[in-house]
C-alpha cells in the first residue's frame, strides 16, 4: 500500500503473522493476501485501478495500481493473474512508494570541472551523441558500449541492440543478467539447443516433490514459495532444501540437506550414479530422446590467465557415461561434499521413483558458480535419465532474478553474442535481423566482443572509451569492484548513466540522465515462465525524466539513424513491439500481439493460433513439435544431451591465510542494490543495513556477539560489518554470508571476479576470506 496505511510497528507485527497458510506463518516473511490488502486500502478514495507486472523480481506477479490525482497511491495483487493469484510480497505491496523518494533525479546533470551542473534534456542528449561520434571517430566503433539490465523493458533492450549492433556495428551490448542468468542460458542451450524453461509455474500444481538447489526461495521468490506450501497443505508434497546455509527456506522445508560450497557438482553426479545403479533410468526415453556428450575440463576460471576457452563436445555412449559415474558413488561423494550417503540416496530415490513427479527449482546458487553451465547441465541430466521433463509436474525450472531478465535479455538478445532470434555468429541470423532493422547485413559484426566482466576490463584497459549504463548499478554489483570503479575514473573515459536516483554508479558519471520509472512510461516485461506482460503509462514522470527507450531513440536520431528509428513518440512502444515480434514469428517462439497483452494478465510464448504454450518439447502440449511425443527441436536430431561434467574445485578455496568461505546474496526486504527499496521507509526500517552472518560455533570461538563489528579480509581488500548470529540465516562452520544491498558496506569490493568460462557468469558465492573481530 502507501504512506501511513499502517505504522511501522503494526506493519512489522503483521508481517510476522501473515503467511501463505497458518502453519507456515513463522517460516518466512512477506506474503500478503487479497483480503489483507483490501483492509489496508485507502477508504473513500476514488481510485482508478490498472494492471501491471510487479517492478521487482522475475516471478512476474500481476499487480493492480491505484492512481488518483496523477499519483500512484495504492497497490494490490491482481486476482486475475495466474502467476500470483492476488498475492503480493512485501516489496510488491510497497512498490509504488519507490517512485516518490525525495531525491528523485528530475533534471539531466553534466559534470563540469568536477561538479554536476543542471542542463536541459536536449543539451544532455546532444552531448551524449556528440561524445559517441567523437569516440567512434578517434577509436573505432568497438570503443563505444552500452550496459543495460534485466530491468530494461523489452522496448528498451530492443532499441539498444538495434542501435549498437545494427546501426553502429558493434556487439558491445551487455546486460546485468550476465551476472545472474547467463549460466541458465548456456545450460539450456548446451542441453537442449534452445533457451528458456520447457515448463511453467503450473508445474507446481502437479509435482509431488520439489528439490530446491541452492535456492532460498522463501525469501527470494516468496509468492512462488507460498504456492509450494499451499500444495503441501492440500496434497502432502515434499520440499527438499539443498543448500550451503540454513535459511527460512530450510525451516519451512520437509528436509534440509547442507553441502560444502562447490560440491553440488559431485552430489548431482552421485544422484545420477544411484539412478543408474538402481535401474531407475527411463531406458526407452533415454534411448529415443537423448545423446551423451563430454566437454573440455580444467578450463580455468576467467581470471585473465590468457586462457582461451572453447568447449569442444565429444560424443560418447551410455557405457562411457556409466563408467564416468563410478567416481561418484554416494560413499565417495560424502567425503567431498559433507552430505551423507544416506541423504544422497534419499534424493536419488525421489527422482528415481516412477510414481513421483519432481520439480527442480534453482536460481543464483547453481548460476553464480564457476562451473555454472555444468551445474545446470547436471540438474537436466537427472531429469533426462528419469524422463521427468516436459510434462505437467516434471520440470527442471530455472527461476529468474529480475523482472525482464528473460524477456529483455534472453529473448531480445541484449548480450554480446545474441540477436533477438539467434546469434551474431550465424550469417542467416545476421541477414534476417538486418532486413528487419533496415541496415546492411555487413553492419552486424559476426564476432562477439565483450561479456560483462570483460567489458569493464576493456574499459580499464582503454579498449572501451564510452559506456552508457541504464537501469543498473554496477558500482555496487560488479565483483572485484574497486578495480572497475577505478577504471571508470581513468582519463579518456566517458560514462553516461540513466537512472531514477543517485547511486554509486551515478557518482562516476559524466552525464546523468533522469529516467521514467515503471508505470511512468509504457512497456513490457518477460518473466521466468515465458510470460510477456504489458503495462501502460499511468502517471507522468517527474521533471524532464524520459523512458530509457526514448533516450536511446533520441540519441540514435542524432547519430543519423532517423530512417531506422522512425518511431513516433506517442506510439513508439506499439511500433517497436510490432517490429520486434517479426524476429520471433513461427511456432517455436511466436509472441502474443499487443492487443492480447493489453487485455490479458500476460501471455506465454510460443503463442500459436491464439493459445499459449505451457509445456515445450512434447507434442501433446507444444505445436512446434514435428513428431509424436518428445521432440527436443532445438537440436538437429531432436534429441537432448546428457553431459558428462565432473566435480572441479572453486577458483579460490579457503587456506591457512584465508580460512573461511565468503558467500553473498539478497534479503527479502530489498531489491538487489537497494537503490529503490531503501527509499521505501518501511522496508528500510525493517532492514536498515548489511551484516555478516557467522556460524554460532565460529562466533563463540572468536568471542563475537550479534552487533559486534567483524572485519572481513580477502586478497582484494577488507570491509567491516556488524555480526549476525542465530538470526535470519545460519552459515555452516567455516562460512560467512553477507547481503549486497547496502551501498555503504560494499561487499563486492572484496569478492573475486572469477566466472564460468562457458557462460561468463561470475561466482559471487565462493571466495576465501579471513574473519576477525574488529
From TrEMBL:
<keyword id="KW-0411">Iron-sulfur</keyword>
<comment type="subunit">
    <text>Component of the nitrate reductase NapAB complex composed of NapA and NapB.</text>
</comment>
<keyword id="KW-0004">4Fe-4S</keyword>
<feature type="binding site">
    <location>
        <position position="364"/>
    </location>
    <ligand>
        <name>Mo-bis(molybdopterin guanine dinucleotide)</name>
    </ligand>
</feature>
<feature type="binding site">
    <location>
        <begin position="498"/>
        <end position="499"/>
    </location>
    <ligand>
        <name>Mo-bis(molybdopterin guanine dinucleotide)</name>
    </ligand>
</feature>
<feature type="binding site">
    <location>
        <position position="89"/>
    </location>
    <ligand>
        <name>[4Fe-4S] cluster</name>
    </ligand>
</feature>
<feature type="binding site">
    <location>
        <begin position="262"/>
        <end position="264"/>
    </location>
    <ligand>
        <name>Mo-bis(molybdopterin guanine dinucleotide)</name>
    </ligand>
</feature>
<keyword id="KW-0813">Transport</keyword>
<feature type="binding site">
    <location>
        <position position="91"/>
    </location>
    <ligand>
        <name>Mo-bis(molybdopterin guanine dinucleotide)</name>
    </ligand>
</feature>
<keyword id="KW-0732">Signal</keyword>
<feature type="binding site">
    <location>
        <position position="473"/>
    </location>
    <ligand>
        <name>Mo-bis(molybdopterin guanine dinucleotide)</name>
    </ligand>
</feature>
<dbReference type="GO" id="GO:0051539">
    <property type="term" value="F:4 iron, 4 sulfur cluster binding"/>
</dbReference>
<keyword id="KW-0574">Periplasm</keyword>
<dbReference type="GO" id="GO:0005506">
    <property type="term" value="F:iron ion binding"/>
</dbReference>
<dbReference type="GO" id="GO:0016020">
    <property type="term" value="C:membrane"/>
</dbReference>
<feature type="binding site">
    <location>
        <position position="548"/>
    </location>
    <ligand>
        <name>Mo-bis(molybdopterin guanine dinucleotide)</name>
    </ligand>
</feature>
<feature type="domain" description="4Fe-4S Mo/W bis-MGD-type">
    <location>
        <begin position="47"/>
        <end position="103"/>
    </location>
</feature>
<feature type="binding site">
    <location>
        <position position="176"/>
    </location>
    <ligand>
        <name>Mo-bis(molybdopterin guanine dinucleotide)</name>
    </ligand>
</feature>
<dbReference type="GO" id="GO:0005576">
    <property type="term" value="C:extracellular region"/>
</dbReference>
<dbReference type="InterPro" id="IPR006656">
    <property type="entry name" value="Mopterin_OxRdtase"/>
</dbReference>
<keyword id="KW-0249">Electron transport</keyword>
<feature type="binding site">
    <location>
        <position position="61"/>
    </location>
    <ligand>
        <name>[4Fe-4S] cluster</name>
    </ligand>
</feature>
<feature type="binding site">
    <location>
        <position position="740"/>
    </location>
    <ligand>
        <name>substrate</name>
    </ligand>
</feature>
<comment type="function">
    <text>Catalytic subunit of the periplasmic nitrate reductase complex NapAB. Receives electrons from NapB and catalyzes the reduction of nitrate to nitrite.</text>
</comment>
<feature type="binding site">
    <location>
        <position position="368"/>
    </location>
    <ligand>
        <name>Mo-bis(molybdopterin guanine dinucleotide)</name>
    </ligand>
</feature>
<keyword id="KW-0408">Iron</keyword>
<comment type="function">
    <text>Catalytic subunit of the nitrate reductase complex NapAB. Receives electrons from NapB and catalyzes the reduction of nitrate to nitrite.</text>
</comment>
<keyword id="KW-0560">Oxidoreductase</keyword>
<dbReference type="InterPro" id="IPR010051">
    <property type="entry name" value="Periplasm_NO3_reductase_lsu"/>
</dbReference>
<dbReference type="GO" id="GO:0042128">
    <property type="term" value="P:nitrate assimilation"/>
</dbReference>
<dbReference type="GO" id="GO:0030151">
    <property type="term" value="F:molybdenum ion binding"/>
</dbReference>
<dbReference type="InterPro" id="IPR006963">
    <property type="entry name" value="Mopterin_OxRdtase_4Fe-4S_dom"/>
</dbReference>
<feature type="binding site">
    <location>
        <position position="748"/>
    </location>
    <ligand>
        <name>Mo-bis(molybdopterin guanine dinucleotide)</name>
    </ligand>
</feature>
<dbReference type="GO" id="GO:0045333">
    <property type="term" value="P:cellular respiration"/>
</dbReference>
<dbReference type="InterPro" id="IPR050123">
    <property type="entry name" value="Prok_molybdopt-oxidoreductase"/>
</dbReference>
<feature type="binding site">
    <location>
        <position position="765"/>
    </location>
    <ligand>
        <name>Mo-bis(molybdopterin guanine dinucleotide)</name>
    </ligand>
</feature>
<dbReference type="InterPro" id="IPR006311">
    <property type="entry name" value="TAT_signal"/>
</dbReference>
<protein>
    <recommendedName>
        <fullName>Nitrate reductase</fullName>
        <ecNumber>1.9.6.1</ecNumber>
    </recommendedName>
</protein>
<dbReference type="GO" id="GO:0009055">
    <property type="term" value="F:electron transfer activity"/>
</dbReference>
<dbReference type="InterPro" id="IPR027467">
    <property type="entry name" value="MopterinOxRdtase_cofactor_BS"/>
</dbReference>
<feature type="binding site">
    <location>
        <begin position="664"/>
        <end position="673"/>
    </location>
    <ligand>
        <name>Mo-bis(molybdopterin guanine dinucleotide)</name>
    </ligand>
</feature>
<keyword id="KW-0500">Molybdenum</keyword>
Amino acid at each position: 500500500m502507501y504512506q501511513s496505511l499502517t505504522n511501522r510497528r503494526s506493519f512489522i507485527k503483521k508481517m510476522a503473522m501473515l503467511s501463505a497458510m497458518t502453519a507456515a506463518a513463522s517460516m518466512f516473511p512477506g506474503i500478503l493476501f487479497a483480503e489483507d490488502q483490501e483492509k489496508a486500502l485507502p477508504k473513500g478514495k476514488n481510485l482508478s485501478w490498472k494492471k501491471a507486472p510487479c517492478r521487482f523480481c522475475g516471478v512476474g506477479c500481476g499487480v493492480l495500481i491505484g492512481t488518483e490525482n496523477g499519483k500512484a497511491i495504492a497497490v494490490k495483487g491482481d486476482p486475475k493473474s495466474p502467476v500470483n493469484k492476488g498475492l503480493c510480497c512485501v516489496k510488491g505491496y510497497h512498490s509504488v512508494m519507490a517512485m516518490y523518494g525525495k531525491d528523485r533525479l528530475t533534471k539531466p546533470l553534466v559534470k563540469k570541472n568536477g561538479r554536476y551542473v543542471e542542463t536541459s534534456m536536449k543539451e544532455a542528449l546532444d552531448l551524449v551523441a556528440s561524445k559517441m561520434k567523437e569516440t567512434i571517430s578517434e577509436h573505432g566503433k568497438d570503443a563505444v558500449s552500452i550496459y543495460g539490465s534485466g530491468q530494461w523493458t523489452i522496448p528498451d533492450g530492443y532499441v539498444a541492440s538495434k542501435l549498437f549492433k545494427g546501426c553502429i556495428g558493434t556487439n558491445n551490448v551487455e546486460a546485468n543478467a550476465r551476472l545472474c542468468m547467463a549460466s541458465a542460458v548456456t545450460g539450456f542451450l548446451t542441453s537442449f539447443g534452445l533457451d528458456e524453461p520447457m515448463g511453467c509455474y503450473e508445474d507446481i500444481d502437479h509435482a509431488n516433490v520439489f528439490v530446491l538447489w541452492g535456492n532460498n526461495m522463501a525469501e527470494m521468490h516468496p509468492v512462488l514459495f507460498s504456492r509450494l506450501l499451499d500444495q503441501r497443505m492440500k496434497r502432502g508434497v515434499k520440499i527438499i532444501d539443498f543448500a550451503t546455509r540454513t535459511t527460512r527456506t530450510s525451516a519451512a522445508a520437509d528436509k534440509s540437506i547442507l553441502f560444502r560450497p562447490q560440491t553440488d557438482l559431485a552430489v548431482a553426479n552421485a544422484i545420477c550414479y544411484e539412478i543408474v545403479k538402481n535401474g531407475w533410468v527411463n531406458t526407452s526415453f533415454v534411448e529415443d530422446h537423448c545423446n551423451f556428450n563430454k566437454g573440455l575440463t580444467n578450463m580455468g576460471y576467467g581470471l585473465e590467465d590468457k586462457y582461451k576457452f572453447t568447449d569442444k563436445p565429444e560424443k560418447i555412449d551410455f557405457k562411457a557415461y556409466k563408467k564416468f559415474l563410478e567416481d561418484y558413488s554416494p560413499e565417495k561423494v560424502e567425503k567431498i561434499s559433507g552430505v551423507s550417503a544416506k541423504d544422497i540416496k534419499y534424493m536419488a530415490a525421489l527422482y528415481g521413483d516412477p510414481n513421483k513427479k519432481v520439480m527442480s527449482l534453482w536460481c543464483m546458487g547453481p548460476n553464480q558458480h564457476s562451473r555454472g553451465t555444468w551445474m545446470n547441465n547436471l540438474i537436466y541430466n537427472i531429469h533426462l535419465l528419469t524422463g521427468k521433463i516436459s510434462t505437467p509436474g516434471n520440470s527442471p525450472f530455472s527461476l529468474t532474478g529480475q523482472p525482464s531478465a528473460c524477456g529483455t535479455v534472453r529473448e531480445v538478445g541484449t548480450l554480446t553474442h545474441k540477436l533477438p532470434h539467434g546469434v551474431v555468429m550465424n550469417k542467416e541470423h545476421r541477414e534476417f535481423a538486418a532486413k528487419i532493422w533496415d541496415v546492411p547485413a555487413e553492419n552486424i559484426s559476426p564476432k562477439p566482443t565483450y561479456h560483462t566482466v570483460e567489458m569493464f576490463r576493456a574499459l580499464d584497459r582503454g579498449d572501451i572509451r564510452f559506456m552508457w549504463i541504464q537501469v543498473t548499478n554496477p558500482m555496487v554489483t560488479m565483483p572485484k569492484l574497486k578495480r572497475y570503479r577505478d577504471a571508470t575514473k581513468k582519463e579518456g573515459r566517458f560514462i553516461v548513466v540513466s537512472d531514477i536516483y543517485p547511486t554509486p554508479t551515478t557518482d562516476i558519471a559524466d552525464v546523468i540522465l533522469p529516467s521514467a520509472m515503471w508505470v511512468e512510461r509504457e512497456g513490457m516485461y518477460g518473466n521466468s515462465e515465458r510470460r510477456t506482460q504489458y503495462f501502460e503509462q499511468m502517471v507522468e514522470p517527474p521533471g524532464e525524466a524520459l523512458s530509457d527507450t526514448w533516450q536511446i531513440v533520441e540519441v540514435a536520431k542524432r547519430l543519423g539513424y532517423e530512417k531506422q528509428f522512425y518511431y513516433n513518440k506517442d506510439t513508439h512502444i506499439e511500433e517497436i513491439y510490432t517490429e520486434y515480434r517479426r524476429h520471433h514469428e513461427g511456432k517455436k517462439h511466436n509472441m502474443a500481439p499487443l492487443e492480447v497483452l493489453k487485455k490479458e494478465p500476460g501471455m506465454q510464448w510460443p503463442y500459436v493460433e491464439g493459445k499459449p504454450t505451457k509445456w515445450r518439447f512434447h507434442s501433446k502440449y507444444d505445436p512446434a513439435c514435428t513428431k509424436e511425443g518428445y521432440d527436443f527441436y532445438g537440436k538437429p536430431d531432436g534429441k537432448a544431451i546428457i553431459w558428462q561434467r565432473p566435480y572441479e574445485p572453486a577458483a579460490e578455496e579457503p587456506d591457512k591465510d584465508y580460512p573461511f568461505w565468503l558467500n553473498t546474496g539478497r534479503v527479502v526486504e530489498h531489491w538487489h542494490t537497494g537503490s529503490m527499496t531503501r527509499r521505501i521507509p518501511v522496508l528500510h526500517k525493517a532492514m536498515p543495513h548489511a551484516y555478516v552472518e557467522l556460524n554460532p560455533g565460529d562466533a563463540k570461538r572468536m568471542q563475537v556477539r550479534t552487533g559486534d563489528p567483524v572485519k572481513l579480509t580477502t586478497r582484494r581488500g577488507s570491509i567491516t560489518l556488524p555480526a549476525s548470529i542465530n538470526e535470519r540465516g545460519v552459515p555452516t562452520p567455516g562460512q560467512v554470508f553477507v547481503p549486497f544491498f547496502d551501498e555503504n558496506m560494499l561487499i563486492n569490493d572484496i569478492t573475486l571476479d572469477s566466472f564460468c568460462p562457458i557462460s561468463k557468469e561470475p561466482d559471487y558465492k565462493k571466495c576465501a576470506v579471513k574473519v576477525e573481530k574488529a
